[in-house]
Amino acid sequence: MNLKTTLLAGLLCLAGIAHAIEKPVIKIETGNTSLIYRVGDNGRLYQSYLGKRLNHEADINHLPQGTEAYLTHGMEDYFEPALHIVHNDGNSSTLLKYVSHDSRNLSDGVNETVITLADDQYPVTVKLHYVAYANEDIIKTFTEISHREKKPVMLHKYASSLLHLNHDKYFLTEFAGDWSHEANVMERELAFGKKVIDTKLGARANMFVSPFFQLAVDQPSEENAGEVLVGTLGWTGNFNFTFEVDNKSQLRIISGINPYASEYSLPSGEIFRTPEFYFTYSLNGKGQASRNFHDWARRYQVKDGDQTRMTLLNNWEATYFDFDEEKLIGLMDEAKKLGVDMFLLDDGWFANKYPRSSDHQGLGDWIETADKLPNGIGRLTAEAKKHGIKFGIWIEPEMVNPKSELYEKHKDWVIHLPNREEYYFRNQMVLDLSNPAVQDYVFGVVDQLMTKYPDLAFFKWDCNSPITNIYSPYLKGKQTHLYIDYVKGLYKVLDRIKAKYPNLPMMLCAGGSGRSDYEALKYFTEFWPSDNTDPIERLFIQWGFSQVFPSKTLCAHVTTWNKDASIKFRTDVAMMCKLGFDIKMSDLNPNEQVYCRQAVTEYNRLKPVILEGDLYRLVSPYGSNHTSSMYVNKNKNQAIVFAFDVYPRYGEHILPVRLQGLEANKMYQVKEINLMPGVSSSVNGNGQTFSGEYLMNVGLDLFTGYKLNSRIIEIIAQ
Ligand code: DGJ
Predict the structure, then answer these.
(1) How close is the Cα of 319 to the center of ligand 1, in Å?
(2) Which Pfam families match (predicted)?
(3) I need a surface site. Which of 100, 226, 298, 646 has the fewest CB within 10 A?
């Protein structure tokens, strides 16, 4: 090479570097996926790619520029923006240009990239955060918005995430329903225009729809094939997912807080941090997406995600409000005999002026009702100790009945319209958590109970009302902050509880799954998916929630709902998740009682597989008279298969259940477990040994023509 060519090559190389510096490529990568951003000639940020991981560096330059990453209101785009700010001068346009980006390792396999964008006319900065979890294929994203204008700017839209997809077709699955009818799986194709999934309920925000979705591209979603993006928002309040197909058949997915009635005034120098949006892009269908979420949630997100869970006996359906000390101690005897870890005292233990004898009164007065519990909670925790079990307690600290001393004393703490008649949902109202004094009070509910009764080992935190009578006495002129500041106030309280009582497990409940999101699960070990405990309904509800939440977070109780189903069927359904009982054991016959005791023992033995293993959903209850799922432990030497016949047709063609997730070349013994006392297995092949290959390709005859029949099979490597 002569001097001239060397110099030329050097110059070209420098130009290349300069080019790269000017127009960086930003790759957010997990083990199997890439999300790639590039800066255009105009200095703006574009999403060039989202999909299967691209491993050849040289290919990146061939990628099309794509669509602007975080679209803003007021510029050339004609569809839904991620950001809409009204500046001090009344101008409501924002144009974001790339400023810098930075990437760092947070821990082994976890990498955070922050892309900083800024407007060139207004001192507004937007930071896009992406935390990539390499092994779990999860990306967590959120946005920070700040400015240096003289006066506060008004945020009208402030998405956590905007993702673009460019495919032939899009199929959206949503998880909607109502009280006792949660998380129904419903898939439909998206056409031009918008589909919005959102909620405006404030506190019990997810009563009608859960904050997660599945978006399959090109073809409807499948369990084990096809590309599907599964996303969920960590926000315990109003959320919004907007799916918009534009004129070029490109799809944008905007996720975040629901901006409805929530314009937010942001002072200079303060940061508005959006909630986190978590997503996985599975190349192998919904099953893989679920396993990605489960692994990630257990490892990084859920409170005590790496720890086991307690079995329990809850008194709610056994007594409702009708109990006293002796009755509860009797139930503790039953809990002890049953072999569960804990007794959970539900609603109805508090208030004296207006005793909580029904849901019409008492909420807010967290002192034991003297005639029901003359010796207080202390006697109960002492009894639990004697019984060798833990004691947990129900609270609903964010709410108040108008018939309560709290309401009489502190009407100013209640969200209510000053000039209108009050409207009640479940005879109650919501306390104003935007008010720091109310935050102190709500924290105090837990803190005082824990201080007085340090043996309390568990809380069930309920929340039965949406925000009604929407006006905060505290926020005065800033009413559009209420929905957001309520949730922020809740997190402040939960942060304090977690800091002071880091080892206190808590169940999140909102009259069923009116709350079920991954931000809340940083504070809660589990949640109550539905008040509906009919085992048939639970097969559907658990199927729905299992799409994103691991089994250890889904409380499942055996109750008297649907007495047509045997105690075995009811228990087998509950054993797929976090097992509990909410039933009077004395109402069961001796055989059933023996069965339940054995089931608890079996469950304890199988917890490592059921709670920590990989879930494979084998046969969907939707459109079928049967359903089956299985858990496989990580080293694939033990698996538990659950199989249910719901309502088989006469003469139906029944197929074997093909297992998944095993090792083809391992030999496994098949054994039916959890049988009623004295009943022997009728499963073909019970006690015999098969290869994983056989079990996964030929399968086992686990379904029958009997109504409401259930089977649990243990698969053990030889
Ligand atoms: C609603 C919950 O979902 C139930 O489990 C029970 O705790 C009641 N509230 C008590 O009022």
Answers:
(1) 12
(2) Glyco_hydro_36C, Glyco_hydro_36N, Melibiase
(3) 100
As for ligand 1, residues whose beta carbon falls within 6 Å of it are 316, 346-347, 359, 394, 462, 464, 509, 511-512, 528, 531
> Does some domain include residue 602?
yes
Beta bridge partners of 459: 393, 506
What is the tens place of the pLDDT at every residue in 180-209? Answer: 999 999 999 999 999 999 999 999 999 999
What is the DSSP secondary structure assignment for residue 698, as one 8-state letter? T
Q: Which long-range contacts (CB under 8 A, 24 or more apart) does 423-426 make?
A: 423/468, 423/469, 424/468, 425/464, 425/465, 425/466, 425/468, 426/359, 426/464, 426/465, 426/511
Residues 614-657 have pLDDT tens digits of 999 999 999 999 999 999 999 999 999 999 999 999 999 999 99
What mean pLDDT do residues 45-59 have? 96
296 and 387 assigned to the same domain:
no
Whether residue 591 is contained in a domain is answered as yes
Going from the Cα of 192 to the center of ligand 1, the distance in angstroms, rounded, reads: 42
495 is catalytic: no
Residue 675: inside a domain, yes or no? yes
Mean of the per-residue pLDDT values of the chain: 96
CA distance 111 to 105: 4
Cα(463) to ligand 1 centroid in Å equals 9
Q: Which of 321, 358, 464 maximizes ligand 1 atoms within 8 Å of its Cβ, making it the mutation to test the pocket? A: 464
pLDDT on residue 240: 98
Nearest to 404 by CA among 436, 358, 440: 358
Q: What is the per-residue pLDDT for 23?
A: 79
Look at residue 5 and tell me whether its pLDDT is greater than 70.
Answer: no
Q: What is the extent of the structural domain holding 685?
A: 615-717
Task: Check whether residue 296 and residue 330 sit in a common domain.
Answer: no
Test site for ligand 1: of 207, 357, 531, 557, most ligand atoms within 8 A of the Cβ? 531
> Is the full-model pTM beyond 0.90?
yes
Find tokens 């298969």 and name the residue: 641
Which residue has its alpha carbon closest to ligand 1 atom 11? Answer: 347
